[in-house]
Amino acid sequence: MQSFFQPCLTIFRNRKILKSTTVSEVKKRYAGSVLGILWAFLYPLLFLAVYAVVYTYIFKINYNNLSTSEYIAIIFCGLVPFLGFSESINVGVSSVTANASLIKNTMFPIELVPVRTVFSMQMTHFSGTVILLVGIIAIGRFSPYAFVAIIIWMLQVMFEIGLIWILSSLNVLFRDLQNIVSLSTIMLMMLSPIAYPVEAIPDMFKSFIKVNPLFYFITANQNVLMYQTNPSSSTWTTMILLSFGFFFLGYQFFIRMKKVFVDNV
């Protein structure tokens, strides 16, 4: 039972140093740029602008008879969790190899490096959510269900940490993995219902699309923020299993892989 809660205990015991190093990573990320922290807000907005132009004015998608502003908000509901995930995964996969000096460090255990990476990459998710909340309030779509998005976000962060524990440790042995991950995130973007409704997916492809873990976090985010409804029980079950399953199994996998880090980094 203790081993089951070990990842939580490790994070809790090192929470102060984890907080300070995460803040330092965020500052370092935007240091030296002219706009600084404003890039955290501009990045999701620019991404949304491209999506909105392509799907609204070029493809002329009719999304459940929503108005243009409502459709753009739906797109943003899907983009926010996707951008948070893609940044965490793309940077996190090489987090161990990029911090080889910490492998034998007892002050900051190497297993916390992927956690720090995920936390520092949440700035995009946070800024995107702030912009999104302003938008749904402006179009009159805000409801108490919006607060459920915080729970969905927390589950996604747990899933990301667990997944990166696995990917970052495997990347020590297989350096090509970081290139594969970059390509995979692009494919996941196309396979995620960000700008098209689930109902538009042909039945023969729905089972295939649902293999994508982001499918559940994206649709759940759209449900609570725009449709003002609670995600289905199957969606909640899948998100919880993905989050807790990857979080605890990913930690155990990482701890076992630590034995080979010294010889391969």
Written overview of the protein:
The chain has 265 residues and is mostly helical. The chain has one domain. It contains 12 helices and no strands. The chain has helices at residues 2-13, 15-30, 39-58, 68-92, 113-120, 122-138, 148-173, 177-190, 203-209, 214-227, 233-257, 261-264. It is globular, with a radius of gyration of 19 Å. The mean pLDDT is 86.
For the biggest sheet, the summary is: none
Low-pLDDT runs: none
Distance between the termini: 32 Å
The helicity comes to over 70%
Q: In one word, what is the shape?
A: globular
**Counting H and I runs of at least 4 residues, what is the number of helices?**
12
| Rg, Å, rounded | 19 Å
What is the count of structural domains? Answer: 1
Strand content: under 5%
- Average pLDDT, rounded to a whole number, is 86
> How many strand segments?
0
| Order of helix and strand elements from N to C terminus | HHHHHHHHHHHH
Give the structural class: mainly alpha
Helices and strands in order, then pairings?
Elements: H1 2-13, H2 15-30, H3 39-58, H4 68-92, H5 113-120, H6 122-138, H7 148-173, H8 177-190, H9 203-209, H10 214-227, H11 233-257, H12 261-264
